[in-house]
Amino acid sequence: MKIEGAVQAHRTVSEKSTSNRLSYAGCQINSFVWDSPVSDVSDASASPERNPTPIGGRRALPHVLVTALLGLEAVLLAGAAVFLLYELLVDVPTSYASAVAILVIAALAAVWLAVVAVGMWRGAPWTRGAALFWQLVQLAIAIGSFQGVFARADIGWFLLVPAVLVIVLLFARSVMLATARRE
Questions:
Q1: How far apart are CA 80 and CA 118, in angstroms?
Q2: How far are the Cα atoms of 30, 43, 46, 62, 122 from residue 158, in angstroms, in the given order?
Q3: Contact in structure between 13 and 19 (CB atoms under 8 Å)
Q4: pLDDT tens digits for range 44-101
């Protein structure tokens, strides 16, 4: 008996209903369907194709700059990984395990940063968070480079300036629009 009532209550809610709850034999059941809004507009016209290029055909300067800086950082990090590999092959490290671990981490970070740069160029929404994370890591390393026994201000500035520039560019309106989630 209860099942027949539930089926009947379920049938009374139409496909275009905005009701969030169904009556089920005296109880209330949540019927959230992936939190998607009901609309009479067809899906083809409601969600335009993701394209970071504006109608004029040219990307905005901040979007190009942030992509170029991320790509340059990826290339320089790949160069550092190649240098670490060279040092591992030529020199005798104190700990082979540590040297290999640092080499693998640098290589993986270079590949990841290259993927982020390509994603930024294509306008993928996830790239803003990934790029911001990397810039914050770079800022932490830069701040550490300014202090301590082995302080190197030149390396600190070399890491700090592009990190701050990319962070500022990530929040530029044109970059936000180019990488906005379109549903």
A1: 20
A2: 54, 47, 45, 20, 27
A3: yes
A4: 444 444 556 655 567 889 999 999 999 999 999 999 999 999 999 999 999 999 999 9
Write the DSSP symbol of residue 36.
P
Shortest CA distance to 68 belongs to which of 116, 112, 23? Answer: 116
User: Which residue spans within the chain are E strands per DSSP?
Assistant: 21-24, 27-30
Given a contact cutoff of 8 angstroms between Cβ atoms, the answer to whether 160 and 149 are in contact is: no
Measured CA to CA, the distance from residue 143 to residue 151 in angstroms comes to: 10
Amino acid at the residue 29: I
With a threshold of 0.70, does the pTM exceed it?
no
What's residue 43's pLDDT? 44
Helix ranges restricted to H, 146-183: 153-170, 173-178
Is residue 57 classed exposed, middle or buried when 0-12, 13-18 and 19+ CB atoms within 10 A define those classes? Answer: exposed
User: Residues in the chain, how many?
Assistant: 183
What integer pLDDT is reported at residue 41 of this predicted model?
45
The pLDDT tens digits for 120-156 are: 999 999 999 999 999 999 999 999 999 988 899 999 9
Dist. CA 108–CA 6, nearest whole Å: 54
